[in-house]
Amino acid sequence: MTLAGEAVREGIARAAEASEGAEIFLVRIVRGMTADLERSDYREGYPIATTALETSAQSEVLAAATRTAFQKWESEIKRGLERFGMTAEEADLLRPSCSARSKARCCRRGPTAAPRRYTAPSRR
Q: In terms of CB atoms within 10 Å, which end of the chain has fewer, N or C?
Protein backbone atom coordinates (compact mmCIF):
# COMPACT_ATOMS: atom_id res chain seq x y z
CA MET A 1 0.00 0.00 0.00
CA THR A 2 2.74 2.43 0.98
CA LEU A 3 4.83 1.66 -2.12
CA ALA A 4 1.86 2.09 -4.47
CA GLY A 5 0.94 5.39 -2.83
CA GLU A 6 4.50 6.65 -3.08
CA ALA A 7 4.68 5.67 -6.76
CA VAL A 8 1.60 7.77 -7.52
CA ARG A 9 2.95 10.69 -5.46
CA GLU A 10 6.23 10.55 -7.39
CA GLY A 11 4.28 10.56 -10.67
CA ILE A 12 2.45 13.70 -9.56
CA ALA A 13 5.75 15.37 -8.65
CA ARG A 14 7.24 14.44 -12.06
CA ALA A 15 4.17 15.89 -13.78
CA ALA A 16 4.75 19.21 -11.99
CA GLU A 17 8.43 19.26 -12.95
CA ALA A 18 7.63 18.57 -16.62
CA SER A 19 4.80 21.11 -16.93
CA GLU A 20 4.84 24.73 -17.99
CA GLY A 21 1.68 25.72 -16.13
CA ALA A 22 -1.04 24.57 -13.74
CA GLU A 23 -3.44 23.48 -16.48
CA ILE A 24 -0.83 21.31 -18.19
CA PHE A 25 0.19 19.90 -14.80
CA LEU A 26 -3.36 18.75 -14.02
CA VAL A 27 -3.84 17.34 -17.52
CA ARG A 28 -0.57 15.38 -17.17
CA ILE A 29 -1.82 13.80 -13.94
CA VAL A 30 -5.10 12.72 -15.52
CA ARG A 31 -3.42 11.48 -18.70
CA GLY A 32 -0.84 9.54 -16.70
CA MET A 33 -3.49 7.78 -14.64
CA THR A 34 -5.55 7.13 -17.76
CA ALA A 35 -2.54 5.66 -19.56
CA ASP A 36 -1.91 3.31 -16.63
CA LEU A 37 -5.49 2.04 -16.83
CA GLU A 38 -5.35 1.65 -20.62
CA ARG A 39 -2.04 -0.27 -20.45
CA SER A 40 -3.71 -2.83 -18.22
CA ASP A 41 -6.75 -3.00 -20.52
CA TYR A 42 -8.73 -1.58 -17.57
CA ARG A 43 -8.05 -4.67 -15.47
CA GLU A 44 -5.81 -2.88 -12.97
CA GLY A 45 -6.96 0.24 -11.24
CA TYR A 46 -5.37 2.18 -8.44
CA PRO A 47 -5.04 -0.28 -5.57
CA ILE A 48 -5.29 2.41 -2.94
CA ALA A 49 -8.72 3.56 -4.08
CA THR A 50 -9.94 -0.03 -4.31
CA THR A 51 -8.54 -0.83 -0.87
CA ALA A 52 -10.19 2.25 0.61
CA LEU A 53 -13.53 1.27 -0.87
CA GLU A 54 -13.40 -2.38 0.09
CA THR A 55 -11.62 -2.57 3.44
CA SER A 56 -11.60 0.73 5.30
CA ALA A 57 -14.64 -0.25 7.34
CA GLN A 58 -12.98 -3.48 8.50
CA SER A 59 -9.38 -2.41 9.12
CA GLU A 60 -8.22 0.78 10.80
CA VAL A 61 -4.64 -0.03 9.73
CA LEU A 62 -5.61 -0.12 6.04
CA ALA A 63 -7.89 2.90 6.48
CA ALA A 64 -4.96 4.85 7.95
CA ALA A 65 -2.66 3.76 5.10
CA THR A 66 -5.17 4.86 2.47
CA ARG A 67 -5.73 8.20 4.22
CA THR A 68 -1.98 8.78 4.32
CA ALA A 69 -1.63 8.00 0.60
CA PHE A 70 -4.51 10.34 -0.32
CA GLN A 71 -3.04 13.10 1.89
CA LYS A 72 0.33 12.77 0.18
CA TRP A 73 -1.27 12.94 -3.27
CA GLU A 74 -3.26 16.03 -2.29
CA SER A 75 -0.16 17.69 -0.81
CA GLU A 76 1.85 16.98 -3.96
CA ILE A 77 -0.88 18.41 -6.18
CA LYS A 78 -1.14 21.48 -3.96
CA ARG A 79 2.65 21.92 -4.06
CA GLY A 80 2.53 21.69 -7.86
CA LEU A 81 -0.25 24.27 -8.12
CA GLU A 82 1.60 26.63 -5.81
CA ARG A 83 4.67 26.21 -8.02
CA PHE A 84 2.66 27.76 -10.85
CA GLY A 85 1.58 30.78 -8.83
CA MET A 86 -1.61 29.59 -7.19
CA THR A 87 -1.94 30.56 -3.53
CA ALA A 88 -2.37 27.86 -0.90
CA GLU A 89 -5.96 29.02 -0.40
CA GLU A 90 -6.72 28.78 -4.13
CA ALA A 91 -5.17 25.32 -4.32
CA ASP A 92 -7.30 24.22 -1.36
CA LEU A 93 -10.43 25.23 -3.29
CA LEU A 94 -9.65 22.53 -5.83
CA ARG A 95 -9.69 19.76 -3.24
CA PRO A 96 -12.82 17.64 -3.03
CA SER A 97 -15.10 18.55 -0.17
CA CYS A 98 -14.35 15.13 1.32
CA SER A 99 -11.29 15.82 3.51
CA ALA A 100 -8.30 13.50 3.55
CA ARG A 101 -9.00 12.62 7.19
CA SER A 102 -12.42 11.28 6.26
CA LYS A 103 -11.65 9.86 2.80
CA ALA A 104 -12.20 6.27 3.81
CA ARG A 105 -15.52 7.12 5.44
CA CYS A 106 -16.56 9.07 2.33
CA CYS A 107 -15.42 6.23 0.09
CA ARG A 108 -17.65 3.83 2.00
CA ARG A 109 -20.63 6.09 1.32
CA GLY A 110 -19.72 6.35 -2.34
CA PRO A 111 -18.58 9.21 -4.53
CA THR A 112 -21.30 11.63 -3.50
CA ALA A 113 -19.12 14.58 -2.55
CA ALA A 114 -18.85 16.97 -5.46
CA PRO A 115 -15.60 18.87 -5.95
CA ARG A 116 -15.63 22.55 -5.11
CA ARG A 117 -15.75 24.94 -8.01
CA TYR A 118 -12.68 27.00 -8.78
CA THR A 119 -12.52 30.08 -10.94
CA ALA A 120 -9.02 31.03 -11.97
CA PRO A 121 -8.08 34.61 -11.19
CA SER A 122 -7.82 36.85 -14.20
CA ARG A 123 -4.27 37.47 -15.34
CA ARG A 124 -3.76 41.08 -16.25
A: C
